[in-house]
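Record format v2
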Amino acid sequence: MSSSDQKVALVTGAARGIGLAVARKFLSEGWRVALLDIQGALLEDAVARMDAADRTLALTCDVSDAAGVADAMAAVIARFGRLDALVNNAGIAVFKPLLETSDAEWSRVLDVNLSGPFLCTKAAAPAMREQGGGAVVNITSISGLRASTLRAAYGTSKAALAHLTKQLAVELAGLGIRVNAVAPGPVDTAMAKEVHSPAIRADYHDTIPLNRYGLEEELAEAVFFLCSDRASYITGQELAVDGGFDAAGIGLP
Ligand code: NAD
């Protein structure tokens, strides 16, 4: 296979956590990977440690900045000449009671978690259309599947992203573009360390049938599958990778 035939993935929020594991999974499967993150220094360091300079591209960008996203997409095409998969993983979490959630926090959560995937998908679709197709995976959350306290902004942003997934699956099917979502249960990343209090950790432990947090690599497997040709007839779906939390149907406080 010549290098121009090697598939290309763009992963947002790839400097650490689930996004970094997803980027590593694509690399291990022989793909070329553009890693995008708002934290430039962290991203450069993560990419340097991958030791795959010929197959990686680091892009410092805020997914909620339309002009920055357009520039990043142009850089992907200039470097790799194609785009086969987009993983909209960049996200932020605010876990606060309604009365303590500022208007600015509400807006920022929606900008990053919902408008970010909208802007990135809009920027990626023309290249995918030209190639005859592609795959998009949006990273949602079990907080969008179930309502609970503290997550008015976060849970709403993820539920809206799940619906955007269905909307775009239907709309882009004619272009050969599949759009799916992966809804992680709790994963012990930097984000979780910031917003999961001991009480939240205990609640998750009690309500998850597999009785543990998920691993970043377990999320990456599901994301990669949905982007691969093995999922060629799957579009518009949200796959919960959550240790059985959703199936158990037990709500969090
Ligand atoms: P993380 O905070 O460890 O990583 C998120 C990455 O996104 C960071 O590198 C951050 O710099 C980047 N990012 C944040 N805002 C950005 C922006 N505006 N533009 C570009 N990059 C930006 O978090 P994580 O736990 O790995 O989360 C990844 C995704 O999984 C998020 O969408 C999150 O909501 C979702 N998720 C996580 C959990 C969990 O328990 N960790 C559970 C459900 C869903």
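The first strand starts at residue 8 and ends at 12.
The chain has a mean pLDDT of 97.
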